[in-house]
C-alpha cells in the first residue's frame, strides 16, 4: 500500500488521558453503557463516524462566510448545487440530520400497515418506519451469513426474497424499498451496482418506489471501483452518480460522507412527492432553504461533498481500515470480512466463547476496550438486536455477537490505530478473564442508548 492521506493537521485537539481506576469508576457510573460516558473520559472515541470527521480549512473558510438569510440564502444554493451535480435529482431539500430526513420522507410515502423492505434498516431508520405503524423488513443477502467469507458485496439486498415478497401474498403491503449504502447494520459491507440495478428493476416492475439511504455513498462507490467487474478505472464520483440515477430518490445523513458536523438531505425525482415532503419539512424542520441547518453547515457540506470524492482521500481511508483490520487479525481478533471502510466489526462471539449470548459477549468486549485502553465503541449483537423477556433476560439471541469500531474521517492517525491494535492484542491474550454482563434496566424502544448493565463475575 503506497497511499497517504492527502491532508495534514493544522489545528489539533488534545485527547483525554485517564488511569484504569478512573475508567473503572466512570464506566460503573455510566451503568456500563458507553453512550452514558462523558467524552472527557474517552481517549480514543470510535463510537461513531457520524458528525465526528475533521473539517478542512476550505470548509471552515466557507462556514465563516456563510449566508444566514432565512429564505434563499447563498449557502443553500451552494448546498443544492453540490447535491444536484452529484445526484441529478431536480428536488433537493436540506434537513438537519439523517433521521429527520427519514421521518419527513417516510411520513410522505408510507402508511400504517405497509412494509418497508431493505438490505438492512439502520436503527433510527427502523424506528422511523415503526413509529408510523409500518413494518421494517430486512432482506440481507445470504452471503452476509458467513462472516469470514471474502465475498465482495455482502451488503447486497437478497434479490430472490425481494422478488418473492413483491410477487407473493404480501405484495400489496410493500410501500417502499430502501437500499442502505454501505450497509451499516450489515457489517459495513458495500452494495454492488448490479444488485442495486436489479433491485430497482424489480421495484419499478411492481410499481414500488425505491430509495437509497446513501449516508456512505462515496465509500460504497470506492468499494465498487475496487471490487466490481466493469468499474475499475471509473471515478468514485461517476459511480456515485450512477447509483443515485438508478433509484427514485435518496435520504442521506451528511454527517458521514458529507464530512459535516451536522446535516442531511432528501433528493427526489417525483415533484408531487417532493411537494409533500417540503410541506412537512417547513412545518417540522425549517424553511425549504435551510431545513433546520445552520448556514455554516450548508456550506461545510457543499465543500465536504467534493472533498469526500477525492480518490486519494478514499484510497487512504480504505487502506487505513484495511491496515487496522490486519493488525486486529494479527492480534488474534477476527473481524467481519472483507473489511469495509467506515468501521470494523469485531467477532466478539468467537473471541469470548466462554460467554453465552445471554451474557452479551459483544458488550463485554466493548467494555473491556474501554477499561483496558479508554477506547469507546458499540456492541452490535444480542444486546442491540436480540429479544428480551419482561425481566430483561435474553430470549432470542442475535445471529452474531459483534462490536463496531467506527473510524472518524481524517481524525486519528496510524499511531492511534496501532495503539487500538495493541489494546486488542492485550485483551486477546487472556480472553477468559473478560466478564459477562447482565441488564439492570432497559427501555422498550432504542434500548441500547439508555440501558444500564452490571458485570457478572
Ligand atoms: N442511516 C444510516 C445508514 C446511518 O448509519 C445513520 C446514522 C442514519 C441513517 C441516521 O443519520 O445520525 O444523521 O440521524 N448512523 C450513525 C452511526 C449514528 O453511528 O452509525 P443521523
Kindly list the characteristics that best describe this protein:
single chain; 457 residues; alpha/beta; Aspartate Aminotransferase, domain 1; 2 domains; three-stranded antiparallel sheet; binds ligand F0G
Walk me through the structure.
- With 457 residues, the chain is an alpha/beta fold.
- It has two domains: 20-49 and 311-456, Alpha-Beta Complex (Aspartate Aminotransferase, domain 1); 57-307, Aspartate Aminotransferase, domain 2 (3-Layer(aba) Sandwich).
- 40% of the residues lie in helices and 15% in strands.
- It has helices spanning 20-29, 57-64, 74-87, 98-109, 123-131, 159-167, 193-205, 217-227, 236-245, 271-284, 295-307, 311-330, 348-351, 361-373, 382-385, 414-429, 447-450, and strands at residues 44-45, 91-95, 115-118, 135-138, 174-180, 210-213, 249-253, 264-268, 343-347, 375-376, 378-380, 387-388, 394-396, 402-406, 436-441, 452-456.
- The strands form five sheets. It has a seven-stranded mixed sheet with strand order 2-8-7-6-5-3-4, with helices on both faces.
- Helix 7 links the parallel strand 5 and strand 6.
- Helix 3 runs parallel beside helix 11, helix 4 runs parallel beside helix 5 (123-131) and helix 4 (98-109) crosses helix 10 (271-284).
- The longest helix is centred in the C-terminal third of the chain and has 20 residues, at 311-330.
- The protein is globular.
- The model has no long low-confidence stretch (mean pLDDT 97).
- Ligand F0G binds next to helix 4 and helix 5.
Amino acid at each position: 500500500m503506497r497511499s497517504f492521506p492527502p491532508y495534514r493537521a493544522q489545528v489539533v485537539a488534545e485527547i483525554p488521558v485517564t488511569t484504569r481506576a478512573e475508567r473503572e469508576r466512570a464506566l460503573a457510573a455510566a451503568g456500563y453503557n458507553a453512550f452514558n460516558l462523558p467524552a472527557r473520559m474517552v481517549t480514543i472515541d470510535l463510537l461513531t463516524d457520524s458528525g465526528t470527521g475533521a473539517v478542512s480549512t476550505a470548509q471552515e473558510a466557507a462556514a465563516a462566510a456563510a449566508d444566514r438569510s432565512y429564505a434563499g440564502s447563498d449557502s443553500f444554493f451552494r448546498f443544492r448545487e453540490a447535491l444536484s451535480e452529484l445526484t441529478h435529482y431536480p428536488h433537493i431539500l436540506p434537513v438537519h440530520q439523517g433521521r429527520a430526513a427519514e421521518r419527513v420522507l417516510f411520513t410522505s410515502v408510507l402508511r400504517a400497515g405497509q412494509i418497508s423492505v431493505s438490505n438492512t434498516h439502520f436503527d433510527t431508520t427502523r424506528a422511523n418506519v415503526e413509529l408510523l405503524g409500518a413494518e421494517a423488513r430486512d432482506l440481507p443477502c445470504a452471503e452476509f451469513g458467513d462472516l469470514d467469507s471474502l465475498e465482495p458485496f455482502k451488503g447486497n439486498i437478497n434479490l430472490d426474497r425481494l422478488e418473492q415478497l413483491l410477487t407473493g401474498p404480501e405484495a400489496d403491503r410493500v410501500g417502499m424499498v430502501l437500499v442502505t449504502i454501505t450497509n451499516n447494520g450489515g457489517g459495513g459491507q458495500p452494495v454492488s451496482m448490479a444488485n442495486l440495478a436489479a433491485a430497482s428493476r424489480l421495484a419499478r416492475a411492481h410499481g414500488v418506489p425505491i430509495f437509497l439511504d446513501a449516508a456512505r455513498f462515496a465509500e460504497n462507490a470506492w468499494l465498487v471501483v475496487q471490487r466490481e467487474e466493469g468499474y475499475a478505472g471509473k471515478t468514485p464520483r461517476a459511480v456515485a452518480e450512477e447509483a443515485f440515477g438508478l433509484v427514485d430518490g435518496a435520504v442521506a445523513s451528511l454527517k458521514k460522507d458529507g464530512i459535516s458536523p451536522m446535516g442531511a438531505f432528501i433528493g427526489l425525482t417525483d415533484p408531487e412527492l417532493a411537494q409533500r415532503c417540503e410541506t412537512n419539512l417547513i412545518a417540522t424542520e425549517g424553511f425549504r432553504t435551510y431545513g433546520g441547518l445552520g448556514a455554516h453547515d450548508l456550506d461545510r457540506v457543499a465543500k465536504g461533498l467534493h472533498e469526500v470524492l477525492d480518490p486519494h482521500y478514499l484510497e487512504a481511508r480504505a487502506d487505513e481500515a484495511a491496515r487496522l483490520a490486519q493488525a486486529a487479525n494479527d492480534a488474534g481478533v477476527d473481524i467481519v470480512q472483507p473489511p469495509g471502510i467506515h468501521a470494523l466489526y469485531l467477532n466478539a462471539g468467537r473471541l469470548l466463547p466462554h460467554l453465552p449470548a445471554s451474557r452479551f459477549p459483544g458488550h463485554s468486549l466493548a467494555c473491556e476496550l474501554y477499561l483496558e485502553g479508554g477506547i469507546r465503541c458499540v456492541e452490535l449483537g444480542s444486546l442491540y438486536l436480540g429479544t428480551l423477556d419482561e425481566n430483561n433476560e435474553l430470549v432470542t439471541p442475535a445471529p452474531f455477537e459483534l462490536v463496531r469500531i467506527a473510524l472518524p474521517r481524517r481524525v486519528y492517525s496510524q499511531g492511534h490505530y496501532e495503539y487500538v491494535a495493541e489494546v486488542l492484542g492485550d485483551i486477546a491474550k487472556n480472553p477468559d478473564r473478560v466478564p459477562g454482563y447482565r441488564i439492570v434496566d432497559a427501555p422498550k424502544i432504542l434500548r441500547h442508548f439508555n440501558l444500564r448493565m452490571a458485570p457478572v463475575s
